Amino acid sequence: MDAPSPETGRAPALDERAALRRLVDQAQSIVRARETSLVLIAAVMGVLAGVAASLMSATTQWMHEVLYWLAPGERLSSSPALASPWLILVPAVGGAAMGVIALALKRWRRHPFVDPIEANALHGGRMSLTDSIIVALQTMVSNGFGASLGLEAGYSQIGSGIASRLGLTFKLRRNDLRILVGAGAAAGIGAAFDAPLMGAFYGFEIVIGSYSIPAAAPVLAGTVSAVMTARLLGAHVEPLHMPLDPNLGPVDILPILFLGLAAAAVAIVIMRLVTTVETLFGMSRIPAPLRPMVAGIGIGALALYSPQVLSDGHGALHTQVGSAVTASVAIVFGLKILASALSIGSGFRGGLFFASLFLGALMGKLYGGLLAVAFPGFHLDPSVAAVVGMGALAVGVIGGPLTMSFLVLEMTRDISLSGFVMAAAVVTSLTVRETFGYSFSTWRLHLRGETIRGAQDVGWMRDLTVAKMMRTDFPTFPQDGTLDALRARYALGSTRIVVLVDAAGGYGGLLRLSEAYASLEPGETAVSGLATQRDHILLPAMNVKEAALAFDAAKAEDLAVVDDRDNRHLLGLLGESHVLKRYAAELERARRGLGAED
To answer: Could you tell me where the beta strands, DSSP code E, fall in 393-501?
Structure first.
């Protein structure tokens, strides 16, 4: 045990901890006070996210080479055929591993994991770094063993998890933490695809939910530093080779727009199919931990026809874009959709980000081939249609028209296609939102009972509950009391409203004092006959939006708050004007935070 210091009377270790605490407090104050500090934190986070993304990519590529007997650097989905029929069992082994992981998590980590979109929409950017690491490892197991999914969920999860951990360490404000989490997701995705513009707009459109000037510098700093780090570590993404002259004219915009409509329809079918597969597995008697293994057997069987159905399809994309349109393209297209639905619906971890790019390329290629047969006057090269379809279908599944447009631009290095890709993306996005209403990420949240349709911050609204807004200092009176007794207790003008209660403290209705004095009933009349709003009540867990709707339905200025609808024990009183005032104030504060106004 340390001896006390003669000067202070305290142990040296305690003095050192106090000095360290003061230093940490000063650092937190500086970070919160200056916008440049947030940019510096984002840049550091980007380096860490770039390292993590590079490690994930390298590890899963090594797993593919070992498990599927590939040559060094060979992509799994670009293999012409499996090296041995026995390799169809590899996805099943991966499914068994996922089942074991699921059992372990069910015992030691039972709470649901929060992804970046949910964190920013509902939790103010708060995420668990441990949970994020687990999700990243799960995606690596799934992808590494050949499940028909990409690593994008892991990339964005680990990047945003690192960002949230740093932001919580420096006690960032809610809006700053949301921006940093968006920057983390952007950094992870951008580093994996060597696409800083795509990564940045992924953060803006998908995770933050909007573009704002204050968010631009942190998101760009994080994404650029992540991409540069990945390049320094040797990560390389081969550009998508296109014909030297796409030869597109203004009239070609018409088939491009119809391609966008087709992409919207296919995107909705894919999302519905995933849900259907998940429902069928739920209805089966197969235990949940065994479902990935069963699905893995099916995925392996599909790979007997073509390994292009395995993993995310990165290598197959480069093969398909430049090759001829054949019947095999349609078969691979159908098998890839089925393999992806089996993967997600059974419990494998991963995303449809790159899988939707590959499927979009196949769809566009088929569309271009059919168009050439049906309308020879349209000279839309199938490879061009493949690139446009790639961006359009990805928008339908993932969302983010600008995100996918920039990705196609950075993958092809061909700016002449960007306008056509963006046109198809806009049509797809609008059609999916009007007819389906969700991207794949928000659709999954919807199936869990959430109502959010994007990453816009609605968590503050859920936190602002009736329990936090209600009054507890309100006048009460027995519901079986008389008018004379009420008038004797409360003088006219002393209060506006009185809450009636029974002998057990249960709610009995509201009574305006002015109406009690204006009543022509005899003084011995029970006040309960003048009570209003007996059946319209508020519950303490209701949020501010639900409370406003309750006031509108009751056409009331005041409502009582009770513990539950059965006991109806009185807890408080809440006025509509106060609810609307608090709602407007919080909404304005959120708006100012997003725009960084003083």
So the answer is: 476-478, 497-501
